[in-house]
TrEMBL record:
<feature type="domain" description="Methyltransferase small">
    <location>
        <begin position="9"/>
        <end position="165"/>
    </location>
</feature>
<dbReference type="GO" id="GO:0008276">
    <property type="term" value="F:protein methyltransferase activity"/>
</dbReference>
<dbReference type="InterPro" id="IPR052190">
    <property type="entry name" value="Euk-Arch_PrmC-MTase"/>
</dbReference>
<dbReference type="InterPro" id="IPR007848">
    <property type="entry name" value="Small_mtfrase_dom"/>
</dbReference>
<protein>
    <submittedName>
        <fullName>Methylase</fullName>
    </submittedName>
</protein>
<dbReference type="InterPro" id="IPR029063">
    <property type="entry name" value="SAM-dependent_MTases_sf"/>
</dbReference>
<dbReference type="InterPro" id="IPR004557">
    <property type="entry name" value="PrmC-related"/>
</dbReference>
<dbReference type="GO" id="GO:0003676">
    <property type="term" value="F:nucleic acid binding"/>
</dbReference>
<keyword id="KW-0949">S-adenosyl-L-methionine</keyword>
<dbReference type="Pfam" id="PF05175">
    <property type="entry name" value="MTS"/>
</dbReference>
<keyword id="KW-0489">Methyltransferase</keyword>
<dbReference type="GO" id="GO:0035657">
    <property type="term" value="C:eRF1 methyltransferase complex"/>
</dbReference>
<dbReference type="GO" id="GO:0008757">
    <property type="term" value="F:S-adenosylmethionine-dependent methyltransferase activity"/>
</dbReference>
<comment type="similarity">
    <text>Belongs to the eukaryotic/archaeal PrmC-related family.</text>
</comment>
<keyword id="KW-0808">Transferase</keyword>
<dbReference type="InterPro" id="IPR002052">
    <property type="entry name" value="DNA_methylase_N6_adenine_CS"/>
</dbReference>
<dbReference type="GO" id="GO:0032259">
    <property type="term" value="P:methylation"/>
</dbReference>
Amino acid sequence: MVYEPREDTFLLLDCLKRGFRGGVLVEVGCGKGVVSVYASNRADYVVGVDIAWEAVRLSRELARASKECLVDFVQADMLNPFRDSSADVVASNPPYLPCDYREDPLVCGGEDGVEFSARLAREAFRVLRRSGELFLVASSISNFERLLDVLRGLYASVEVAEERRLFFEKLFCLRALKP
């Protein structure tokens, strides 16, 4: 099963449209490749990563259909295969609902909804170059304050770059800058 682009995907796209400045971008949890393919028109190079082989396959199909798209897709667990200080931007619409990740890895971000995102923030810090940026989608349903604490403990600055209200929650696109 592969995550279908939804409001949170488009929030990340809008956030990148306003704040993304180029360089090497890695998208974690590329799903069907929509964000990575979009970013390939603005970045020097893009790598989309997903733990699900089906997501990588579908993303590659989208990239082939886009023709002038410089993006690679790899199957991996988060940022494990990437060297330290190898990317300018890490972007993700991670699973963020408070439930067990093993129950539904497409939407469950851990007990508080932020465990996956906190792990990703730490891995991104390692992979990002100096002054690199992390763009991360989060939800008010999760333990949002805990996620902000993790980000503030790692990054030089953290801001809510975009925000959207849905029926029963707010979605946030966070932008964190590495010192």
